[in-house]
Amino acid sequence: MDFKKITRNPIIYVILIGFLLFVGFSLITSLGGAKQISTQEGLELLKGTTVTSVTNTDGDQRVDMKLSEPYKGADDVQFYYVTARASEVVDAINAADPKGGFNDEVPKASWFDGFLSLALPMVLLGLLFWFLLSSAQGGGNKVMQFGKSRAKLVTKEMPQVTFTDVAGADEAIEEMQEIKDFLKDPARFQAVGARIPKGVLLYGPPGTGKTLLARAVAGEAGVPFYSISGSDFVEMFVGVGASRVRDLFNQAKENSPAIIFIDEIDAVGRHRGAGLGGGHDEREQTLNQMLVEMDGFDPKANVIVIAATNRPDILDPALLRPGRFDRQIGVDAPDLRGRQTILEVHGRGKPLADSVDLEVVARKTPGFTGADLANVLNEAALLTARSNAQLIDNRALDEAIDRVIAGPQRRTRVMRDKEKLITAYHEGGHALTAAAMNYSDPVTKITILPRGKALGYTMVMPLDDKYSITRNELQDQLAWAMGGRVAEEIVFHDPTTGASNDIEKATSIARKMVTEYGMTTDVGPVKLGAASGEVFMGRDMGHGREYSETVAERVDVQVRDLIEQAHNEAYQVLNDNRDILDKLALELLEKETLDHNEIAEIFKDVKKLPPRPQWLSSSERPTSALPPVEIPRRALPAGVAATTEADGSHEKAPRRRPTGQARPATA
After folding, report:
1. Whether the Cβ atoms of residue 370 and residue 168 lie closer than 8 Å to each other
2. Is it true that the peptide bond before 257 is cis, omega within 30 degrees of 0?
3. For residues 223 and 255, what is the distance between their CA atoms, to the nearest angstrom?
4. Is it the case that residue 616 has pLDDT exceeding 80?
5. Strand, coil or helix: what is 290?
6. Per-residue model confidence (pLDDT) at position 656
7. 591-603 burial by CB neighbour count: b if 16+ within 10 A, else e?
8. Pairing state of beta strands 258-263 and 225-229?
9. Residue 518: which residues within 8 A CB-CB, separation 6 or more?
C-alpha cells in the first residue's frame, strides 16, 4: 500500500477534521450537560422535596431540574417526555412548587446555528468540487491552473534527439533542416527578405517518425521544445482549451526562439461545423484561438509550430492556408535504403550475429514503417532472450517478421488431418497459380502452420519497391487470390470458408479496377463515386451515389467478369499443373513450411499461363506498333545493387497493400 499517495489525498483530511469535530462536540456535551434520567424517575423526584428549580423546554419536550441533594451522583438532571404526557408533567411541576420556582422556555434558533446550517453544506460542496478538480488536474498545485497550458517542456538537460537518430525520411529531414537553420541564425534569412514558415504540418501513416522528426529539430537547434497533444486542449469546461492555447503561445514567445509541437492535431483542428448534431463548441473555440495565435505572430518572433497528424483530409481549411501551416511535409513509409538505415539505427546496442545482413532484412520488409522495423528487431531480441541465446540470428529475425505480419504462431491449435490436407492444397493453389502467371511477383514462403487468425499463408512478394501497378499485374493478383478456392473445388469438389478473405480482397481489387482505375472497356476511364474513406462526423452523410442504377448494374457485371476470368485462369493453371500441386501439398504436409529455395525447386517445371490478348480501351482507336524507347543506362545510387533472383534477394515479406499482400487461408 502506498501511504504517501494516500496522505496526498485531500478527502482523507476532510474526513479526519469531521471526525475530530464530532468527538470534540461529544466530549463537550458529556462534560457540561445534565445527567439524563428516565421519565418515571423524573416524576418521582417531582413528588419529593429535593427539587429546587425546574425548567420545561417546549419543542424538545425536556425538563431540567436542579436538586438540593445529589441523585445518582448529579445535582442537575433532566428527562424527556412525549406529548401525550405533557399535561401530567405540567401538573407534577405545579404540585411540586419548587423553592426556586419553575420556568417554561420556547427555544429560538441562534444566528450561529443558522449560519452553521447554511455554511456547512456549502463548505462540504466546495471541498468536494475542489477534490474532483484536483483529481482531474493531477492534484498538487494544479488545482486552480486548469486554464494553463499542459505542454511538456523539453530542456537541454533531457536526452537529445538529433537528425542522426532519424532515418528513412531524407526528404523530410532536408525540409526540417531549414527550420533548424532559421532558429539558429534567423538574421541570415531575414537579410534576404525570406520569411520562415510559421507552421509545419507533418502528415503520413502511423509509425513513420513524425514525432521523432519534430524532436530532432529541437535537439539540433537547441531551443525550448513545447510538446502537447491535441486532446490536451479539450476539456468539459467551455473556454478552457482557448485559455490553454493562449498560455502556451505566451510561454513560447517569452522563451523564443522556441518550437511548439502539437501531436495528433486532428483532435482539435477538425473541420468546423462538421458533425451529425452540429459543431463542437469547446473544440471550435480552441481552434479559433489557435488560428488567431498562429496568424498574430510578430514577424520577427522566432516561434515555429510543428504539428503531426495521420488525417490531413479532415483538418479545417483555415488551418492549412499559407500564413499558418505554410509547409506541409509528407512522411511516408521508407524505401529499401531507408529501411536498411532504420534497421541500422535500431540495431545499435543489439548483439546481431555475423551472418545477419540488414540489407536482406530490409528487402524482406517492403511497406514496413519505422515503428514496424523497430518492432521487428525488438521481437527478435525477445525471441533470442526467450531461447537463452546470446546473439540475434536470421532465424529469430525471420520469426519476428512473421509475428509482425500475421501474429504469433498458434502452437496449441490442433488441426485434424483432413483440415491440414485442405489447407495444404489451398495454400498450394495460391502459390502455384502465382508461379504460373506472367506478371506476378515470386512466391517466397508457404506455410500451413496457424498464425494469428490464419490457418496458413502464402507470401507473394515483389523484388523491389513498387509505386504503380499494371492491369496485367492486377489480373494476376486476382487469379492467384482465387487459386486457393479453385484448388479446393478441383481436388475436393467441396469448397470451405477458408477462401472468404481471398474473395473479399479479390472483389475489392476488381471493383477498384472498374470504378477507380478505368481498366474496363464497358465503363471506361471514369471515376465513379467518392473516395472510399470512412465517413467523417456527418460531413459525408447524405451524399448519395453519384451514378445511376444502370451504371451500377454495369459496374457489378464488370466486377463479376473480372472475378470470373481470374477464376477460369486459376482453373486452367491448376489443371495443367495438377501433378505439381499434389507434390507441393505432400511437401507441405511433411515440412509444414517451405522457403523460396524449396519452392523454386518444386516449381521449376511449372507450365505458364499463355499471355493474355492485348487489351485496348476501345477497338475503334488506332493501335500503335511502335515500342517504347530504351531506358538510358546510368550509374545506380550508392548502396543499391542490381536485383537478381540468384542473389537470394527475392525473399520478401508481404507488402501492406493490394500489390503485394500475403494471402492467408482463414477459417
Report:
1. yes
2. yes
3. 9
4. yes
5. helix
6. 36
7. eeebebeebbebb
8. parallel
9. 524, 525, 526, 527, 617
CA distance 574 to 151: 62
pTM greater than 0.70: no
Task: Measure the CA–CA gap between 53 and 76, rounded to whole angstroms.
Answer: 10
77-86: average pLDDT: 88
State the pLDDT confidence band at 154, using cuts at 50, 70 and 90.
low
Nearest to 383 by CA among 362, 363, 408: 408
* φ, ψ dihedrals at 504, nearest 5°: -60, -45
User: Of the ranges 286-300, 362-376, 463-477, which one carries the lowest mean pLDDT score?
Assistant: 286-300
Give me the mean pLDDT over the 602-611 stretch: 92
Q: Which long-range contacts (CB under 8 A, 24 or more apart) does 84-87 make?
A: 85/39, 86/61
Q: Which residue has the cell 448534431?
A: 277
H or E element that contains 52: strand 51-57
The Cβ of residue 639 has, within 10 Å, a number of other Cβ atoms equal to 10
Report how far apart, in Å, the C-alpha atoms of 221 and of each of 158, 160, 203, 424 are: 14, 11, 22, 57
Summarised one tens digit per residue, pLDDT across range 184-226 is: 787 888 888 887 778 888 998 888 888 888 888 877 777 788 8
Q: Which residues are annotated as catalytic? A: 427
Query: Are the C-beta atoms of 362 and 346 separated by less than 8 Å?
Result: no
pLDDT in tens, 332-359: 888 888 889 999 988 888 999 989 989 8
Residue closest to 476 by CA, chosen among 443, 451, 447: 443
Side by side, the strands of the sheet bearing 51-57 are 35-36, 74-80, 62-71, 51-57, 102-105
Long-range contacts of 105-110 (CB under 8 A, 24+ apart): 105/55, 105/56, 105/57, 105/58, 106/58, 106/59, 107/57, 107/58, 107/59, 107/60
Count the Cβ atoms, other than its own, within 10 Å of residue 359: 17
Percent above pLDDT 70 for the chain: 79
Which tens digit of pLDDT belongs to each residue from 253-294? Answer: 887 778 888 888 888 877 776 554 444 566 777 777 778 777
Contact 519, 257 (CB under 8 A): no
| E strands in 463-578 | none
State whether residue 446 is helix, strand or coil.
strand
| pLDDT computed for residue 512 by the predictor | 93
pLDDT at site 664: 44
CA dihedral 576, 421, 485, 493 (to 10 degrees): 80
271, three cell numbers: 473541420
Q: Which residues pair with 607 in a beta bridge?
A: none
Which amino acid type is present at position 376? V
Share of the chain above pLDDT 90, in %: 21
> Dmax of the chain from CA atoms?
139
